Amino acid sequence: AQxxxxxxxxxxxxxxxxxxxxxxxxxxxxxxxxxYVQYPxxxxxxxxxxxxxxxxxxxxxxxEAEFNKSQTSFHLKKPSALVSDSALYFCAVRDAxxxxxxxxxxxxxxxxxxxxxx
Amino acid sequence: xxxxxxxxxxxxxxxxxxxxxxxxxxxxHNRLYWYRQTLGQGPEFLTYFQNEAxxxxxxxxxxxxxxxxxxxxxxxxxIQRTEQGDSAMYLCASSPASGGITDTQYFGPGTxxxxx
Lengths: 118, 116
Prior knowledge:
The complex is a heterodimer.
Chain A: E1 3-5, E2 10-14, E3 19-21, E4 24-26, E5 31-38, E6 44-50, E7 56-58, E8 64-68, E9 73-78, E10 87-95, E11 107-108, E12 112-117
Chain B: E1 5-7, E2 10-13, E3 19-24, E4 31-37, E5 44-50, E6 53-57, E7 65-68, E8 75-79, E9 88-95, E10 106-107, E11 111-115
Parallel strand pairs in B: 2-11
Antiparallel strand pairs in B: 1-3, 3-8, 4-5, 4-9, 5-6, 7-8, 9-10, 9-11
């Protein structure tokens, strides 16, 4: 089974400061990991993904995430937060062990609300 | 590329009524997914289509739920005899034909269902 945990319901950060949103995962095989952002009354917008290769993945809007296999983590980071980054962030995983026939279902974490204050 | 669209954006219905939602994926995307998101939770997978074939269904998809994608383009999700517990945001996503299990899913704005 595949699962994701986002241990923080909310993260508060001042504008201009670095931000980190935490994510840990559990899979049987290798993980494919995704970050999405959701603004109020909107669908999910894709930020970045890790499939293989470099552990540091760069994505949209200046976000990046670091894959750490030993800690089974995929934390989202940004060097300098903006007020407009305030939103709900979701981490998701797809277990490579499931193979092609099992479909492409993603398992999402419960989400972390990021609040960036001016 | 106009993105994934969903209709309606909001639906209010009375318990026991049937409702149907529509999803139009990004053109040329042959994979389509439905998820359900309740308040304060992450999306939960419901079902998945590759072209017109429904290849996977979650245990969350009870007998009252049915999804179709008749011509491999748009999809509909029908809920029969709605219950208050069906109140949620229903999200549709699509992914490219060239992708495999690593492909990115692109989400629509969702349909928010309220069952009174």
